[in-house]
Amino acid sequence: MTAWDCDVLVIGGGIVGLSTAYAITRAAPGTRVIVLEKEAGPARHQTGRNSGVIHSGIYYRPGSLKARFAVQGAAEMVKFCAEHDIPHEVTGKLIVATERAELPRLHALVQRGRENGIPVRELGPAQILEYEPHVRGLAAIHVGSTGVCDFKAVAARLARLAEDAGASVRYGSEVRAIGRRPSAVAVRTADGTVLRAGALVNCAGLHCDRIARLAGDDPGMRIVPFRGEYYELAPPRAPLVRGLVYPVPDPAFPFLGVHLTRGIEGEVHIGPNAVPALAREGYTWRTARPRELAETLAFPGPWRMAREHWRYGVGELRRSVSKRAFTAAVRRLLPVVTADDLVRAPAGVRAQAVLRDGTLVDDFLFAESQRVVHVLNAPSPAATASLPIGREVARRTLAALRS
Fold this sequence. Notes:
The protein is an alpha+beta fold. The chain has a domain at 1-53 and 149-220 and 356-403: FAD/NAD(P)-binding domain (3-Layer(bba) Sandwich). The chain contains ten helices and 19 strands. The strands form three sheets. Strands 1, 2, 9, 10, 11, 12, 18 and 19 form an eight-stranded mixed sheet that branches. It has an eight-stranded mixed sheet with strand order 6-7-5-14-15-16-13-17, with helices on both faces. The protein has a three-stranded antiparallel sheet with strand order 3-8-4, covered by helices on one side. A hairpin with a 2-residue loop joins strand 18 and strand 19. Helix 1 (15-27) packs parallel to helix 5. The two termini are 17 Å apart.
């Protein structure tokens, strides 16, 4: 017998960490897995603070991890929700061009969707009205495989399935220190508990770069937290939107723009915009953590990113502080809406990896070192792709365990 407390320690109880634990127990039954989550329950951050969209994979570069895992993950997520009675619906969505300058990008998305194996239908203005009577645009594409679900419920079910297979999920267990030897990895949590394992998985999301450094690895990136601010349509106005409606995105950015999402309970989320957060978990402007902000600003990447994309950032900031500006962005797609129709909704924070040269990482990013696997960039569509991501991380982890 080894002196390990378990075979694999997983840091992070969001949907990716829990999917990884579940995948390990399925791929290698009997493997002892412990998940450490600093919050009192699962999915308290990125997983539980988004619009619940099951993404089709249409936006992502053919052959990329995002493209492959999102297309595969969308189908698997619908099946998983159906098998486990988790609320979900395959609604389809429209991607709508409202200006002539957007038409070439819309046509490029049609081609990208077909390359990724996603069925798309091109629409003219009259056909848009058949799907969404109150939406206006010059042209659109309909993506039938997009849907919505309750990702918090998915994460909770993954936790139960992993536990049923013998894993342990420990909440309120914040990792404060990591030590490594050739034969083991050890962590110390905030309450002083020390756990030793044969392999460690870093699925810490908003804190993944900090955990990588605790493990003695240089991740070569920093997480720059972007707060996504949402409104909802006031309930009497919710029937204005039947499904999901998106603008044509700017390919220079990983953000999809202000869009309309009818959720599983009939509510219509509008957003998000994307503004720099003043803390890793900065869900409002009032939440600021100077030490975290200083760590981010000490890395050259965010400064270089800001110099290159400041005009885009100014527009996002304006929509953050001005409801009128936010409403104007919504009215491009839904002209009948007014500022009085919009009600503030809870915000989320995107854990966006930025490289030293200021590049925003546009694909899922994994890194490995001795007995450690790091998940360093897994924002949207990671929830959609969580089942195949979990299997990929499990494969890498089990290989590390055998090394």
